[in-house]
Design brief:
Blueprint: E1 5-7, E2 15-17, H1 22-32, E3 36-40, E4 46-51, H2 52-60, E5 80-81, H3 86-92, E6 99-103, E7 109-115, H4 132-141, H5 150-163, E8 167-171, H6 174-184, E9 192-196, H7 202-210, E10 213-217, H8 228-234, E11 239-242, H9 254-264, E12 267-271, E13 279-280, E14 283-284, E15 291-295, E16 308-312, H10 315-325, H11 348-359, H12 361-378, E17 385-387, E18 395-396, E19 402-406, H13 411-420, E20 426-427, H14 446-454, E21 455-458, H15 466-491
Parallel strand pairs: 2-3, 5-6, 9-10, 9-11, 11-12, 12-15
Antiparallel strand pairs: 1-7, 3-4, 6-7, 8-16, 13-14, 13-18, 15-16, 17-19, 19-21, 20-21
Bound molecules: pyridoxal-5'-phosphate (PLP).
Pyridoxal-5'-phosphate is lined by residues 173-175, 199-200, 202-203, 245, 271, 273-274, 295, 297, 308.
Length: 492
């Protein structure tokens, strides 16, 4: 079996009879969700197929829901046979023909094959080449594999120190770090918490877990981070906190945010999941807010597999978070519960990896920056690719995922090209305000809507053969640039 093609066993095969109607075909399309219906005749033999595009075109012609399928089938269509080799079947599939029925000797459908593009170059990959295995093995052999053990304290101490903060509370992921911070600050129903529109959903979900009401505000056009002016405008008597997200490694304008928040008695909880080590005015992110949260998910700058941490200068809040992280159990009396808490603990195994990663954080950041600089150098002639700003006053961004805007409606084509070359590229997050479950919380979103339609993240991994990847990328984009230049000349 080749990775490019998957045979589907025990599956819901999208089949219609040719004496059924377009309406029946639509129902099958809707049920199976594969974008195609295979049509069989009265003897159950394959006699055609219709894609959702075909059906759309039929409706645009002179057909209606009651049109019989047998009247609209084309005699020519692509199908495979289970008697063929995988390789033969694979050659029938491509970017355009993504799914075909597979028949037996009697033309009866027994399966289908699907085109699955292989991704050779992942968006990111953890670099675990330091003491990670050594520390992990030590933790393992010590049998302290659960959430007690020396690596946890060491990781909490070392990481909070790295951020320039006194205390760290390690937790099981970045989402619960945000939840824990909000809980420790007593935020709940009736309170409002301001969040940026352009972020990963964890930021707003954590607010919703507490019963508080999120208020979604727009981001700045240049930094892509929360717009302090919009934050200020959104403040009401109910506003208890703001969660600035240092998006894609870019620090927010912490000077303005802290000032506005201070003037209105609003807590600042930084979401630093994507920006370990970023600096605003000589101060690392994670050291501005009252409690600040990190993620150590596998794609983050340093990782513990899954994991997160809250850092704070407050001993009281540290105690509260430690209690809440451990089922609300009294810190003085074991198995005595003073509040309803959670199991949000990190394991000693995760912390062991974290300690080793932290030893190498400068190396990991430098490597990512090097990759970003190579992209910038190689792609500087591509007029429609605009990289994330790295020249904003007071902000020293880090590279999480190399991020850029692809302008002039070319994002889809560019991404298609890159994916065809087995390069995994991602679109920016959808703005929260676009999603049904969050849109009612929107205060403002103009820039977020524009940015999210243009933004892409390029593969950014310490282990990638940078130059090789970027060569592919740049030749693809340059070819596209030339093609467009010719198109434009013809057009004028
Ligand atoms: C901005 C932001 N906040 C929060 C999180 C949540 O982190 P985790 O995936 O560790 O729960 C993420 C990450 O994935 C993130 O990108």
């Amino acid at each position: 079996m080749t990775p490019n093609q998957k045979l589907n066993h025990k599956v819901d095969i999208p089949i219609c009879k040719n004496n059924e109607t377009l309406f029946d075909a639509l129902k099958v399309l809707n049920r199976v969700g594969k974008g195609i219906v295979f049509i069989v005749n009265e003897d159950e033999k394959l006699c055609g197929l219709l894609t959702d595009g075909d059906i759309r075109r039929l409706f645009l012609g002179e057909n209606d829901l009651q049109t019989l399928l047998k009247n609209v089938l084309s005699p020519e269509f692509v199908y495979g046979s289970v008697l063929q080799t995988h390789e033969e079947i694979r050659t029938l599939l491509n970017q355009k023909i993504k799914i075909i029925p597979l028949v037996d000797r009697d033309m009866k459908i027994v399966d289908y094959a699907e085109y699955l593009p292989e991704i050779h170059i992942p968006i990111t990959q953890p670099d675990l080449n330091g003491n990670e295995l050594k520390y992990l093995t030590e933790a393992f052999l010590s049998t302290w594999i659960s959430s007690t053990g020396p690596y946890i304290t060491r990781f909490e101490n070392d990481f909070s120190k790295y951020c320039g903060v006194n205390h760290g509370v390690a937790v099981s992921n970045g989402t619960v770090a945000l939840h824990l911070a909000l809980l420790a600050l007593g935020i709940g129903p009736g309170d409002e918490v301001v969040v940026p529109d352009l972020t990963f959903a964890a930021t707003i979900n954590a607010v919703l877990y507490t019963g508080a009401t999120p208020v979604i505000v727009d981001v700045e056009e240049d930094s892509w981070c929360i717009d302090p002016q919009e934050f200020q405008k959104a403040i009401t008597k109910k506003t208890k906190a703001v969660i600035p997200v240092h998006l894609y490694g870019q620090p927010c304008d912490m000077y303005k945010i802290m000032k506005i928040a201070g003037n209105h008695g609003v807590h600042v909880i930084e979401d630093c999941a994507e920006a370990h080590g970023a600096i605003f005015k000589d101060q690392r992110v994670g050291s501005f807010g009252i409690i600040n949260c990190f993620s150590f998910y596998g794609n983050k700058i340093i990782t513990t597999g899954e994991g997160g941490m809250c850092v704070t200068n407050s001993s009281d809040l540290t105690e509260k978070m430690r209690t809440l992280r451990d089922h609300g159990m009294s810190r003085k009396q074991k198995y005595w519960h003073e509040t309803i808490g959670y199991n949000y603990r990190m394991t000693n195994l995760q912390a062991a990896i974290g300690c080793a990663q932290l030893e190498r954080i400068d190396e990991l950041l430098n490597r990512r920056e090097e990759i970003e600089n190579t992209y910038r150098r190689q792609l500087r002639e591509i007029s429609f690719v605009e990289f994330q700003r790295n020249d904003l006053p007071h902000r020293k961004k880090v590279t999480w995922l190399v991020s850029a805007l692809v302008k002039e409606d070319r994002r889809e084509t560019v991404c298609e090209k890159l994916r065809a070359q087995k390069i995994d590229v991602r679109y920016f997050f959808y703005p929260l305000s676009k999603m049904d479950i969050y849109k009612k919380y929107t205060f403002s979103n103009e820039n977020s809507l524009k940015l999210s339609e243009m933004g892409i993240n390029f593969p950014t991994s310490g282990k990638l053969p940078g130059s090789e990847l970027i060569e592919i990328l740049s030749s693809e984009l340059k070819r596209r640039e030339k093609f467009n230049a010719v198109e434009n000349t013809i057009g004028t």
